[in-house]
């Protein structure tokens, strides 16, 4: 009987570990972002200026 509880505990810990790992690394499981999406996100976060955004947007659009 005690051995059964041990296996149940191991199983629960294993499932929780996998669940936490997938939650932490969920971005790797999602589809990859397109370059324009990344550019929009960087501009929205204030990582690049409006001029840099517009220049890079023109560069991306010229490649299509």
From TrEMBL:
Residues 35-58 form the SHOCT domain. Keywords: Membrane, Transmembrane, Transmembrane helix. This is Putative membrane protein. It holds the Pfam family SHOCT. The chain crosses the membrane at residues 6-22. InterPro entries: SHOCT. It comes from the Bacteria. The lineage of its organism: Bacteria, Pseudomonadati, Bacteroidota, Flavobacteriia, Flavobacteriales.
């Amino acid at each position: 009987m005690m051995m059964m509880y041990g296996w149940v505990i191991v199983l629960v810990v294993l499932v929780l570990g996998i669940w936490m790992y997938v939650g932490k690394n969920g971005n790797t499981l999602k589809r990859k972002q397109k370059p324009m999406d990344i550019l929009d996100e960087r501009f929205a976060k204030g990582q690049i200026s409006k001029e840099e955004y517009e220049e890079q947007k023109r560069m991306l659009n010229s490649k299509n």
